[in-house]
Amino acid sequence: MNHNNSSSAVDRPESGSRVPLTLAITGGKGGVGKTQVALNLALVLARQGYRTLLLDGDVELANVNVMLGVYPGMTLEHVVLGERTLDEVLLPVTENLDLLPGASGVPGCLELDSARREDFLAQLRTLEQGYDRVIIDTAAGLSTPALHMVAASHLAALVITPDPTSLTDAFSLVKVLHRKGYRRTPSVIVNMARGATEAQTVYRRFSTAVSRYIGVQLHYLGAIWRDETIAQSISTQRPVAMMDDSDPSCRQFWTLADMLAVRCSQGVAPANGFARYWGRLVRRRHQQRSEQQPQKAVATGSNREWLASLGERLHRSQGDPLSRYRLITGILETLGESVDEDAVEALQTGLAAMNWEEAPVTVRRAASEHFRQLARVVAPPEGLRPEEGRALGAGADASGEPATEDSGPG
Ligand SMILES: Nc1ncnc2c1ncn2[C@@H]1O[C@H](COP(=O)(O)OP(=O)(O)OP(=O)(O)O)[C@@H](O)[C@H]1O
Ligand SMILES: [Mg+2]
């Protein structure tokens, strides 16, 4: 069967541009089988005739490459640095499947001058448009690049295993995504299950907890059994999806690909896709940087005295979280830096320690204004503007399923 036609891309958000269906394979914990799933699923999609791009989003260069026995040495970061072209780092794996190593290196292009940056982003867009499917193997944990990969994608598949720590880590991931405004329905793949009953039990336990405590509905994409052939495929460097498709180990990934096709046929909400998402993010970051530059010059010149008395003021503000909060944001502004998410977390903890009931109305009003400013810093997540978030939410929440191709923002 050959699915290779232009209608395979799900989304044409801007005139003339097409975004391939993008699926992020993720999961809170390391070693749950994200790379096995991403690589084997990508291989099957390629065998089905989809032009497929596999993005190795891990920070280390030790994932897909090892499983295939290819050691390119060159990654997307070398393209960013201008040492290689995209074509030079792109690795053809099989017919219809290419591998792009080092996909987490895109933010490095922030350091380029605008002409080179735009050139790089245009190359990335052109590359992406040549594919029907993009599979992203994300790094483990709650790293910012991994969250961005999920935000860029049409679908996210969380890989969990019967190991309870994989469930708690995946739970944290859903929680963080939800807190950051992610409103799509995550899919779940149960890996290393010892049969259908265990897979169902694990999924049910996880989805019940996620629904009850986070209020997020999940979608069951499928299961991959604990399988010795899969484990051994690392040393033979021959992924199971390269085997004959009648082989049971290989067959599992065909079933998973079929489940993915069913999910896609139900409609997925539009997403930016990898290249356009990063393009927007990088441009926005760059704009923020240039807006901050003049403040830096003004602030450092005029606040020497204020800085000199800082120690004393910080000391005096002990027990007064609002004053401390103002001081700390003041310091950050003086240094010309914006408040990053870790700082926000720390400041919020300080504010949460306040005795709100007894605070005078002027203090509460001032604090609420600060909260509004904080909200503008931390939400919505990059790449998901508030109106996009709402539109996706409208499509996804009512039925528990994502909006159809045509109903989201264009
Ligand atoms: N279904 C399975 N049956 C048996 N072994 C498996 C299965 N899935 C994965 N493994 C093995 O588990 C180990 C971890 O798998 P993999 O590298 O794909 O995990 P990962 O989530 O990508 O890890 P990391 O977070 O470190 O990138 C590997 O040795 C792999 O071969
Ligand atoms: Mg991996």
TrEMBL record:
GO molecular function: ATP binding; ATP hydrolysis activity
Pfam families hit by this protein: AAA_31
SUPFAM superfamilies assigned: P-loop containing nucleoside triphosphate hydrolases
Protein name listed in UniProt: AAA family ATPase
InterPro entries: AAA_dom, P-loop_NTPase, ParA/MinD_ATPase
Domain AAA: 23-169
Membrane-crossing residue ranges in chain numbering: none
One annotated GO biological process: negative regulation of cell division
Tree of life domain: Bacteria
Region feature Disordered, mapped onto this chain: 379-410
